[in-house]
Amino acid sequence: MNPPTRLTALYHRHLALGGTMVESEGWLLPERYAGPEEEIEAALGSVGLFDCSASVKVDVRGEGSEIDGFLGEILPGETARRPGDVAAYPSDAGSMRYVCRLTDEHALLVSRPRHAPPRTSPLEPETDTSLNRRVYLTNATSVLAGIALIGPAASHVLRKLSSVDVSLEALPDPGCTEGAVAGVRCAMVRTDLRVRERRVDSFDLYVGRGYAEYLWDAVSEAGREFRIAPIGTTACSSMLGLPAKTRVGAGLEG
Amino acid sequence: MEEEKSGTHDRSGRTRRETGEDGRVERRPGEEIDRSRPVAFDFEGKRFSGYEGDTLASALYASGLRIFTRSSKYHRARGLFCVSGRCANCMVNVNGRPNVRACVEPIREGTVVKHQNAWPSLDHDVYSSIERMGRFMPVGFYYKTFINFPWEWKRVRSSMRKLAGLGSLDDELADWKKSAESGDPRSPSPRMDDKAFDQEFMHADVAVVGGGPAGIFAALEAGRLGARVVLVDDQASLGGHLRYDDGEIRLEPSTGEGRYSGRRASQLANELSDAVSQREGLTVVSGATVFGLYESNLLGLVRGNRLIKLRAKQVVISTGAHERFSVFRNNDIPGVFPASGLQRLIRLYGVRPGRSVAILTDGDVGLDVARTLIGAGIGVSVYADSRTGVDLDEPQRVLGGTGAVILSGYAIIESLGKKKVEGATLVRIDENGRAIEGSERKFVCDTICLANSLEADTSLLYQAGCRTVYDVEVGDFIVSGHPASVHSCGGATGIHDLSTSLLQAKVAGLRAAVSLAEGRAGPEVKTARDDLETYSKDLRESESRYRERVRAWKLKLSAAVSGYGGGRGAIATKSFVCICEDVVEEEVLRAISEGFDDIETLKRYSTLSTGPCQGKICLLPSIGLCARETGKSIPQTGRTTSRPPYLPVTMGALAGSELHPTKLTAMHYKHLELGAAMMDLGEWKRPHAYGPVGEEYAAVRGAVGVIDLGTLGRLDVRGKDTPRLLDFVYTHIFSRLQPGKSRYGVICDDAGIILDDGTVTRLSEDHYFVTTSTGNVDFVEQWLEWWIAAQNLDAHVTNLTDGLAAVNVAGPRARDLLKKLTRIDISNEAFPYMNSAEGLVAGVPSILLRIGFVGETGWEIHFPAEYGEYFWDALMDAGKEFGVRPFGVEAQRVLRLDKKHIIVSQDTDALSDPFEADMPWIVKFEKDDFVGKAALAAIKRAGPRRILVGFVMDAGMAHDGDQVYSSDGGDKLIGAVTSARLSPSVGRCVGLALVSSGSTRDDGSLRIMTQGKLSEARVTLRPFYDPDGKRLRS
Lengths: 254, 1034
What we know:
The complex is a heterodimer. By secondary structure, chain A is α+β, with helices and mostly antiparallel strands. In chain A, 20% of the residues lie in helices and 31% in strands. Chain A folds into two domains: 6-55 and 143-246, Gyrase A, domain 2; 56-139, Alpha-Beta Plaits (2-Layer Sandwich). Chain A has helices at 11-16, 36-45, 64-74, 154-159, 212-222, 233-240, and strands spanning 6-7, 20-24, 27-32, 48-51, 56-61, 86-88, 96-103, 106-111, 136-139, 144-150, 175-181, 184-190, 193-195, 198-200, 202-208, 229-230. A six-stranded mixed beta sheet of chain A has the order 11-12-15-10-4-16. Chain A has a five-stranded antiparallel beta sheet with strand order 6-7-8-5-9, with helices on one face. The longest helix of chain A has 11 residues, at 64-74. Chain A starts with 5 loop residues before the first strand and ends in a 14-residue tail after the last helix. In chain A, 56% of the residues are buried. By secondary structure, chain B is an alpha+beta fold. Helix content of chain B is 26%, strand content 26%. In chain B, helix 8 (339-349) runs parallel beside helix 9 (365-375). Chain B is elongated. The interface between A and B is large, with 53 and 53 residues.
């Protein structure tokens, strides 16, 4: 039996917003809403909202030194040792995008979406687990929905929903933290983009999948005064300077 | 009087000369309105217009409105007063929102404004007749009268509240609320405002409160070393008093800002404003009122409909000062202004306050006002300085030839007029500040300006934990004892001198900057420290010079503080001490004579300073009166406590926008498609039922049913110490559980109380899959984390609840259905009860648990949530031939009750232990130790006090919560029903009841009080359905 198509928790929101849904890497994702150009302009001019739930997420837990060792193995030369650190994966090192060190004993690996490898347990990570280490990897792709806010007004929207200080001084680029957004616990990852030679604020919020629609609605409502607009995969990939279809998710790349 | 003859009044009290453009003065530099951009709005159903930059108050005043509201108790006419949002004199209803201060509310096209607290109109308020009964309503009226007639209080309370108070939500809103409650979906939403209330969080290294010159300089200095500074001001533009001050700036060279000397104040305001806008890292939040300073430097701000929570590492408070209020007869009528209110009207909004002004002063401020008035072409009828023997050369120079009478040693004793000022009575005072009888002089005027000396606005500093002590020499409250991260400057410190304020500002700003730079080195830090030292020294000298000048002013504090009111027996000619609460001098004196002579008890008894202004107008006059009457000094009298909110804040702003987190399962939309009635279960939405519950029940018992279990808590627990952890936290033993096996368990606290239950499945040697009840997963996760840390265990918990969808496929045909979707051998031999497996179901990686909560052959299947809808459809398609039906929570509750399976917190309470829950088998005392072991051992020894029993009703229906009585015919209450449902299998009502131990036995009976009748029920300790469990094991 072929693996069925995967739906993000925001699938029905995309339909309600008129998103054109296409299958990509096993997921049914919104390719566009108003159109890539309009969406890019909306994001660069104010703020765009993007569903990055399809990113592969792996929850890493273990002793701090063990996580350091593990990250050192998969991320030679650069690592995220302190809570709040975010380190990028080189673009040629598989499909990894970034690792977020949430606490000493907890990290989150995030990579671009791809077809889930054949597996029989939902707990099996969708990543290479062959390295010798004493860390515990759990597949968190399904657990966490991802909502990215991209654009100069992104921090203004977040300021309406969270007491977490998201200024560059408090949450540097790249950087991560945990806190409540609209009253629900999120991992917040800042990985600003470089688009048309200027830096554009970009925050990825990872939240329990059950809250995804609630958070999307809360962000949309808070962003109404900034004319927040949903953006599809094509617009997002274009802003990242990446070819379409293979890129999903906002933020730091390579 | 001459003024009255010159115009004809219309119904709103306006003269033709006072309406339209006649209400404005000639355009002058510095005004904040754009006369080329008119803005129209409605007031009382009529069209009014103002200009962009106007406030509602300035536009209405320019159009001739003089009575803006009616007072809370006596319904006296009240007009524009402070023009800065401090008092309650101009509160109106704007777009259905009551108590909007018109003087700080910008006009917007199409705004609908209504009066409040008057009927039928502001000019002719029927309730104003209450004033005639004032003598029958002395201070403490409610306490004294209704303590003897409490039943009367209940009767008259609502009427009194209608008469008093400060406006109400619009009738329109009330109508909407009524229709919304009646469920009429067509009811239009209320026109409360064009935006919903919301909130914002801000962070700063330094927050500066107050955008006057001191606040601006403090903000500029605070940012010198790169700190993020947020400058908050309650006005539309920065500059504070410089914006409306007409004077020339004179600064001491030591301020380092001598270059500004010689400029006009408004020019300096603009330059400072520009400097702020050009400073990187400095954010200005204008038009926002700071209403409270809370722990850890959290500032509460309100800006329109938005609540802003600003957290700062350092706080500089520069809230400035305002003129003291004078207590004299009739001091509350429209046309009485403090100097700053008058200057704001003229300078900022180009509004002509009147045509003939009486200026009453006790310092140099009166001269500034005189200059402003003369410059605007407004007449001055009298200029009176209350100081005796003061040099009048300068007033003569300014006002000479204008016809103004210039006096010294005179103070106001009464304003003349009823609904507006028509004149003023002045009295000569002696060198001790006492009025000289027979020296009264009356002057015709339509405006009275109280250009009194200033009173520091120390409320926020008080809230910050500073000490505020009255300094007799300076004549104001002086702040000391600042917390390390709180600084002050400007008028809020009680020093009212621009040069000294700027030095204070620089010191405050630099102190904040240097504090933040602690541990940093570098030339810029050293320079900042050196500057701080220099400015601190200069500040000490400047303050010393200021004190000398104050002494030279010969300020008569008794006069300035308490004024010349009516005294005892003068209640008919009211001298208001508190204009918000309508408290007059005579009432204060009476309260003091009754023994309320402490300022705090006086406040509570008389309601002084408890109104919307929160003491900004009445604090010092009331302290002065209290001091005078008790023979104490002002420092001995002290002051009342200042608490948040500093200014009124709407409940809507505090509540913010509606944020009620909601969780949806992966199959949510499938349930909606099927027409399920959804219910809230904690934050989750769950299907209560899809149709008749009996049909769902029958499907499970007779064929196969599917229920969405996505709300169940799921935890992934790994690590070599996981068996040890689970043995310690659960009462059962899980270290002996074989991989692939599941077991039910309960978690207890140290007292043996059941906290949660669920299943534990061992997936591999050090890997377990734990389920919890729906609402408890976060707690169980934290509970496990706590014990991992406490016991230093190698175990790690990951909450998978959101990531896994789950269903329970149950019923005699469940196996047939699943066989179509999986290659896993699910025969009873290969996959018996309480076993588990991992594998593909419908192509989806899944964990299968053979568990029988509903008492039939069944599997809990957990799988990635993104496949939820697909999986649901696959089950329904595959199960069609077997008569599959979805079932909801209600059917599940009946099904599990058949089996006497408990729901923690439904069938247990905050005192239930496993023995009471009739599960003694689940406590394994042979383990070394586990949470609650000692307590449970004691309970076992003593025997449980209560026991959970099953019952079957002979007839009738019991309900959750019904009381249970013993069967001996007496009225002994022995417990309560925890769950009861009509069981289709049994054909009668079955249930569980928590009853006293020993009160009943198996096959005994009990009586249940249901709907007022006692009904017999038979006790059973065995499940009602399939008591041997053959079906779920088949």
